[in-house]
Amino acid sequence: MADESRVNRAARPPGNSALRERLKELFRYHLLHTEAKDQYTATRLNQYRSAALTVRDVLVRRWLETQQTYHRSDSKCVCYLSLEFLLGRMLGNNLINLGLFDEETRALRELGYRLEDLQEMEWDAGLGNGGLGRLAACLLDSLATKEFPAYGYGIRYEFGIFSQRIHQGYQIEIADNWLRYGSVWEVPRPDRIFLVQFYGTALQYNDEQGRLRYEWVGTDDVVAMAYDYSVPGYGNRTVNNLRLWSAKSTREFDLEYFNDGDYVRAVENKDRSELISKVLYPNDLRYQGKELRLKQEYFFVSATLQDIIRRHLADRGELDGLADRVAIQLNDTHPSIAVAELMRLLLDRYGLSWERAWEITVKTFSYTNHTVLPEACEKWPVGLLERLLPRHLLIIYEINRRFLEEVSRRFPGDTDRLRRMSLVEEGEEKRIRMAHLALVGSHAVNGVSALHSRILAQENFRDFYDMYPERFYNVTNGITQRRWLLLCNPGLAELISRAIGARWITELEHLKNLRPLADDGAFQAEWHRVKAANKARLADEIWKMIGVRVNLDSLFDCQVKRIHEYKRQLLNILHAVYLYNRIKAGPAEPFVPRTILFAGKAAPGYAMAKLIVKLIHAVAEVVNRDAEVGDRLKIVFLPNYGVSLAEKIIPGADLSEQISTAGTEASGTGNMKLALNGALTIGTLDGANIEIMEEVGAENIFIFGLTAEQIAASRRTGYEPARIYETTPDLKRVIDMIAGGYFAPAEPDLFKPLVASLLGEDPYRVLADFASYARCQEEVSLAYLDRRAWLRKSILNVAGMGKFSSDRTAAEYARLIWQVEPVPVPLRQEGPDLPGL
Q1: How confident is the model at residue 375 (pLDDT cuts 50, 70, 90)?
Q2: Segment 766-801, tens digit of pLDDT
Q3: Distance CA 750, CA 456 (A)
Q4: Quick one: pLDDT at residue 283?
Q5: Separation CA 254–CA 695 (nearest Å)
Q6: For residue 359, with 0-12 CB atoms within 10 Å meaning exposed, 13-18 middle and 19 or more buried, which class applies?
Q7: What is the rounded CA–CA span in Å between residue 94 and residue 122?
Q8: Residue 253 — very low, low, confident or very high, per pLDDT cuts 50/70/90?
Q9: Catalytic site residues?
Q10: 3-state helix/strand/coil string of 749-801
Q11: Which of 758, 566, 608 shows the shortest CA–CA distance to 171?
């Protein structure tokens, strides 16, 4: 990382020696009294924890004041339900948002420490997997910065999805024990516990008014205990709350078994209960995995809704106004069981009529869909729901019955429409369509890019759009510029602030003021200096992580995202082999040096994705060792991709690979992060790429490949990948090398499944787009040779990224869907944030 003292100095107040002395005093206090260490015995971990606890001391007072302000204001609040929050490291981000980064840096330096060293001791919070979780984290940051009353809700996973290791080119998954040393940022709340029920039986009875009621009995119960994380806004006093639930057993162990000497069985119940919050996203290929996944979803939804209702009743004393005081956002389909759970609570616990409970439910919920792929929308087997959540299945059946009656009235005689729209998918195994439950039970549904929202309305959910057009919205994703430029790229942040001022930090649209500087030679030289320094740091990281030296003058070509067939890392590595063949065929021919960088995790049960990881490593092994190729082409794969690694890669990238099959990527946010840091995009007209092109200009982005409409047409009319293979000699040679064992001579058939998929169905149209991709990559290489023209495009890309702030995303949700207003936290008159200052 660059010298932290240079981090956007233009946006910072002058040094405050009294504050700096107090920060040092608190650091020493925590080192001695909290960590029980002195300067001679303290480890780097003790030093990090002391620095983080100093920052938490500042947060706590504002945190409490924020909650008190919301309580006094009686304003409507947002509750954001997400199964993932990919927070990354929090020390640097919290310092940035509190305006303390420079002073803490100086304070630590005066004590003999470097902030950048201490930051490396913090583990990424293992609370998410990819873009979905990072979007949730960005939105929380923006909601606090925009001063919206908001609460995040999720699960406190003891272990993250997994820590990725590479052994002989294969992905190996090991436990991501991110809480091994605890987390200084979390606050346990043993006073906030709720009972969550599973299994049992739903019994019917008539109440004293003769109304049919249900009681859920004979259940296995689990306790949900809250752990809170503070979420500070930038440049204000708002500190919102992220509440994560941890599963606890209702009893520590069964004393009867213990007394009989069966110690293992005595603690079985405890272990089984607490497994719910053990690991992010269990492998759901087997029944036990599916059951645990559904348990996780219901567990955090039930605890969350009970907490929301508790807070609402404490403030208002009645439930009728719930939808006027609370907006609950379902972040993707995972929390959609919340629709049935809120109905259960309103009906069974609080005795509301079905009609009143349903009115409150629909007005309270809104739903964000994050996928174009229908198979990614969860469908739970009826048998599993009947066993695990019997009362909820009955409620879903009743919702479906009433809903289909409404459909029949609107579209009489259209039985096929009834089948398509039903919450129950008929077949050999009946399943509940959870996306349909969310659609029916919410007053709003949105996609996350213009193209995605159009596909939802015109294709995936066309029947629902025909019925409820007023419920459909688009809210394009965004990213927080505080983490993804100000924190991760301090050199560029300082350069921008010197040139146009610092308003971009909270109003990203001010980046447009860079446009007049795009042709300024001196500014271009400074821009190049910053990028060169970032590339040097990234090259050092590559050497440190995998022992490969890369050419600093080469084009840094980066594809960093989850490994999935539709994201088409396979297309990228095919092109890498094509480039390798070009060098081998004409070693004396001109060639623009290129470093192709991959990073990303494949799901543990996703065999094809893991085979792609192996292919990347197999090709890299051959290419990187070839003396004839030298440093003209290197292929690197950096393991264990996460937020902290992204913060190191993204500032050094020259080219951003956004090459998903058109019509498959809902939005993407990696494309935004890379473009915001000056990387040029090569991509398809997919997801937010389209909107990025509109903002930065078609001449400043590299677009190739079939459109979503052309892809859809190829599915209707037929597609023959084998014909493309036979008629494209360069591509044929690449595939033949892979199929023939050139990159795996000891296992020549290793990559046959990938080849068979390409030559058979090629569902993601890799071969169809290869020629266009290769031509476009040649345009990239030629453009890179013209440094001034490339720098101009880079500056204009950053200048055009104003739309893609999550601040704008949060404001659109607030205005279009939630109808919430900002509630500023006033400056306190008595006492400072730091005790004793």
Answers
A1: confident
A2: 999 999 999 999 999 999 999 999 999 999 999 999
A3: 38
A4: 61
A5: 63
A6: middle
A7: 13
A8: very low
A9: 370, 561-562, 567, 669, 673
A10: CCCHHHHHHHHCCCCCCHHHHHHHHHHHHHHHHHHHHCHHHHHHHHHHHHHCC
A11: 608
Joined tokens for residue 185: 């940022």
Angstrom distance (rounded) from CA 718 to CA 461: 24
Residue with tokens 């174009």: 372
Cα angle, residue 493 at apex, residues 488 and 540 outer, rounded to 5°: 45
Q: How far apart are CA 370 and CA 452, in angstroms?
A: 9
Cβ(739)–Cβ(751) under 8 Å?
yes
| pLDDT digits 0-9 by tens, 379-389 | 999 999 999 99
Give how far the C-alpha of residue 45 lies from the chain's centroid of Cα atoms, to the nearest Å: 27
Question: Band of the pLDDT at 4, cuts 50, 70, 90?
Answer: very low
Question: Does the CA dihedral 517-519-520-521 come out positive or negative?
Answer: positive
What does the mean pLDDT of the chain come to?
A: 93
Q: How far apart are CA 366 and CA 361, in angstroms?
A: 10
Closest Cα partner for 432 from 395, 482, 474? 395
Burial call 452-471: b when 16+ CB within 10 Å, e when fewer: bbebbbeebbebbbebbeeb
pLDDT tens column, 496-505: 999 999 999 9
- What is the per-residue pLDDT across 311-320, written as a single tens digit (0 to 9) for each? 999 988 889 8
Q: What is the DSSP letter of 365?
A: E
pTM score, whole prediction: 0.94
Residue type at 474 in one-letter notation = N
First to last CA, the chain: 31
Gyration radius from the chain CA atoms: 27
pLDDT digits (tens, 9 = 90+) for 458-481: 999 999 999 999 999 999 999 999
Q: Which amino acid is at 429?
A: E
Arithmetic mean of pLDDT, 162-167: 96
**Vertex 207, ends 202 and 209: CA angle to 5°?**
150
The whole-number pLDDT of residue 282 equals 65
Return d(Cα 130, Cα 667) in angstroms, integer. Answer: 13
Q: What is the DSSP string of 580-626?
A: HHHHHH-TTS----EEEEEE----TT-HHHHHHHHHHHHHHHHHHH-
- CA quadruple 234, 238, 239, 242: dihedral positive or negative? negative
H helices present in 179-316, as ranges: 255-259, 263-266, 268-274, 287-316
DSSP state of 825: P
Please tell me the predicted confidence (pLDDT) of residue 11.
43
**Please, where are the H alpha helices in 146-213?**
none
pLDDT given at position 508? 98
Tokens of 280: 């992010």
Our measurement of the distance from residue 442's CA atom to the centroid of its chain's CA atoms, rounded to an integer in Å, reads 23
Q: Which residues contact 330 (CB under 8 A, 6 or more apart)?
A: 81, 336, 338, 365, 366, 367, 368, 438, 442
Neighbours of 6 (CB within 10 A): 14
DSSP letter string, 105-151: HHHHHHTT--HHHHHTTSPPP----SHHHHHHHHHHHHHHHTT--EE
Nearest to 495 by CA among 514, 516, 521, 515: 514
The distance of Cα 436 from the centroid of its chain, to the nearest Å, equals 23
Per DSSP, what are the bridge partners of residue 507?
A: none
Q: 387 is written with which tokens?
A: 């066993």
Q: How far is CA 642 from CA 59, 574, 648, in A?
A: 25, 25, 10
Structure tokens at 361: 């439910």
pLDDT grade, residue 376 (50/70/90)? confident
476 vs 830, higher pLDDT: 476
Angle at 331 between CA 219 and CA 565, to 5 degrees: 105
